[in-house]
Amino acid sequence: MTKQSVMVSEPQTAGVNNMMEIVAKSSSLFSSMEMNTDNGYNFAIKKQFLKKLETSVVGVDKGTTRVNAWVDSMRASSPPRLNSTMDNDQSWMMQHPSALNMFDEIINASKGKQIVMFLDYDGTLSPIVADPDRAFMSESMRTAVRDVARYFPTAIVSGRSRDKVYSFVQLAELYYAGSHGMDIKGPAKGPRNNKTNKPVLFQPANDFLPLIDEVTRILIEKVQSTPGALVENNKFCVSVHFRCVEEKRWNDLAELVRSVIKEYPELRMSQGRKVFEIRPTIKWDKGKALEFLLESLGYANSTNVFPIYIGDDLTDEDAFKVLRERDQGFGILVSKFPKNTNASYSLREPAEVKDFLCRLVEWKRYSRRMISRV
User: Residue 89 catalytic?
Assistant: First the structure.
């Protein structure tokens, strides 16, 4: 039997443990939710509310046609890559120019507004690696993120469990939205630009925890027959990584995962970069998390906020779409290739993300010096 790699969330660090509770219950966006705390941290969202969040789409169709579609998409990066020709590449770059080349344009659009930063982790702050448990960010990237957070409210929005992504980033002053935004927690003391100055905790999928644990155990057992497959419990979702699986086995793996999930109509299956994501069927994603965090910071209906979201994955498209619909701020896609996206700008790789963050900090410091001289 093939030895199976299994990933579980690491214990919560002291920095996160010291974070406290929740934003105001009077939040207009979430006023329909009944939010109770358990030992000061965990939310008990009533089943009636969860039913309202459930979608009518399970996300996994029966039959081999659906599986074959999965396999076709597995061959490409996420979001879907466009057919690449010189003309197409040039056209795409005109529509999604480099955020570094257009930095002045972005800054001009933000004048008079509060910038709020949202950052994906894997593929954005750290490189995509064969072993997801070793997706470490560099010290220089950590410094860049720390510096950004000194001037702008900053959140990490990831499909990883919140504890896991915190163990990678190790910056207690940030907001963290793990499990694709289903596990949100902020610093005990909010940043100076937080209008509410109230600690944040939000977990809309608490009732699904036993189900997620059950499916994780089943998948761990099932994928042992697939060398290279790796199951990761991300608390409110499960990831099945196939980056190290031979392509000839992808079809069988997709069918295997589908066969498990079809027995759980409360869950749905989607795909990221060489990973299957199994999540609760609630209307919650990274876009909803972005809206929740903006409201938590006191910018729900503000015209003076400028969100910038940087991400590389298909799941980040929900946040890009929200920004377009709000007509506020910009989405920045991290990709070396033209892809279908709702982002306005692009960066090629994490190294360029770091450069963008550093330029943002340099601009803010310069602006403050100029103001102090007046």
Answer: no
